[in-house]
Design goal:
single chain, 3 domains, two-stranded antiparallel sheet, 7 helices, 4 strands, 50% helix, flat
Length: 177
């Protein structure tokens, strides 16, 4: 299935499912359409190798290019994995449509809403869907979309530990001088 067909399929399924969700903001608003879907892909490794190759070209380190070209060739053989969407950024036509989708596909969906549809409807292509409001596109680090919450937590804990160690060292240094 090409990406445009998948985008249209996703639009149809989401709209069909939020039609059953009760009104959230405006009972007069009948439109629950989607104006655009943009995908982020599982291509972190490819972007990393392309950045390295660009840095080598700029700095004149042409001896590393052969290794990087080999890595690029190996990665392009995995075309299916590289072009698999991992996140969809959906722009709804109305605030009502966004609110309905958010209410229905949040992790803590109210029981009254959940009873309106089959539990299997909360899944798409075998995976559970969860909606959340996206950051501004300019604030998104596209390479980090694959980073899990656990990895982020580990990095935050590590950063805090380094800060605490640094502060203790500075305190000790200034206290005994």
């Amino acid at each position: 299935m090409d990406i445009f067909a998948f985008s249209n399929f996703l639009k149809e399924k989401i709209i069909a499912r939020i039609q059953n969700v009760p009104f959230v903001i405006d009972e007069d608003e009948q439109r629950v359409g989607i104006s655009r879907i943009a995908f982020a892909y599982d291509n972190v490794e490819l972007i990393k190798v392309l950045k390295e190759r660009g840095a080598c070209l700029i700095s004149g380190k042409l001896d590393k290019l052969e290794v990087l070209e080999t890595q690029l060739n190996e990665l392009t053989m995995k075309r299916k994995e590289l072009t698999r969407p991992v996140t969809a950024f959906i722009t709804f036509e109305t605030q009502e449509a966004y609110e309905r989708a958010s209410l229905y596909w949040t992790k803590d969906c109210p029981e009254a809403i959940y009873e309106l549809v089959e539990p299997a409807d909360k899944n798409m292509l075998g995976d559970a869907l969860y909606f959340s409001q996206a950051n501004e596109p300019s604030n998104i680090l596209w390479e980090n979309l694959k980073t899990t919450d656990r990895q982020i937590l580990c990095k935050e804990i590590g950063a805090w530990l380094l800060i605490i160690i640094f502060l203790c060292a500075m305190f000790t240094l200034f206290a005994f001088l």
